Amino acid sequence: MPLRDHFRPPVWKQASWEGIHAMLTGMITYDLSKILPDDYAVEPRVELGPYFEMDEAGAETVALPHIIDSELENVAEYAYEVLIFDRSSNNKLVAAVELVSPGNKHRPEARQAFVSKCSALLQNRVCVSIVDLVTTRNFNLFGELMDCLGSSKSPFTKSSPATYAVTCRGRKVRDRPRFEVWAYPLIVGQSLPTLPIWLTEDLSVSLELEATYEDTCRTLRIR
Predict the structure, then answer these.
(1) Is residue 195 within 8 Å of 129, Cβ to Cβ?
(2) Could you give the angle at the alpha carbon of 39 between the alpha carbons of 35 and 43, nearest 5°?
(3) Smallest Cα–Cα separation from 77: which of 112, 50, 43?
(4) Do residues 207 and 28 touch, judged by C-beta distance below 8 A?
(5) By 3-state DSSP, what share of the chain in percent is helix, strand and coil, each rounded to 5?
(6) Which of 26, 74, 132, 155 could connect to 183 by a Cys-Cys bridge, CB 3.0–4.6 Å?
(7) What pLDDT is recorded for position 172?
(8) Residue 148 contacts residue 140 (beta carbons within 8 Å)
(9) Residues 129, 99: contact at Cβ < 8 Å?
(10) Phi and psi (nearest 5°) for 212?
(11) H/E segment holding residue 72
(12) DSSP string covering 12-69, please?
């Protein structure tokens, strides 16, 4: 099933983006659980913190608790992610799949919070994958992450796309630090890619985004 635009008609009338993100998080967890080695465990995380937002059409999008106060808004807590742990190393976090929400791209402070979170994970040798399906806000958070890490070279052949899927990790090669990236633009109407998820420097599993996305849309009856 090709990628759909979940933030514009007709798809947004079939299912909310919140439902799609939550279901996709669960599907990714389920699919990875079937292929991870026995010493690894995978868990979903959904953090809905205080959040209130008006979409482009003026309709309210509310995640409980309903706090209509800009002073209390905390979009940085609005997160969908899948975490992989190494049970043989005292449940050490080794990989994270971060699904970008509109809140993550809303304000400069929210974008900075997301970038800082991913940067901290990478500095702790955690493999980070970012999947951005948000078509209505043209910020590329991975590009901002690259800037934060001091890298000026973009992995995309053209201008940084608003929607994309990427895996990145830090490692040492011959005692020298190296930053590795697998990056793919996501285009409405086209299939989704397969991402490597690195558990160690030499061991990875494949996240079949196309299959998990198709299962998500089928379950939510999105045509």
Answers:
(1) yes
(2) 65
(3) 50
(4) yes
(5) 30, 30, 40
(6) 155
(7) 76
(8) no
(9) no
(10) -70, -35
(11) none
(12) GGTS-HHHHHHHHHHHHHHHHHTTS-TTEEEEEEEEE-SEEEE-TTS-EEEESS----
Structural contact between residues 17 and 102, judged by C-beta atoms closer than 8 angstroms: yes
How many Å apart are CA 78 and CA 155, to the nearest integer?
27
pLDDT of the residue at 52: 43
pLDDT of residue 10: 86
Contacts of 153 (CB under 8 A, 6+ apart): 146
- Counted residue by residue, the chain has a size of 223
Pairwise CA distance, residues 62 & 55, whole Å: 10
The amino acid that residue 18 corresponds to is E
Coil, strand or helix at 146: helix
Domain boundaries, the chain: 11-219
Nearest to 102 by CA among 155, 167, 163, 15: 163
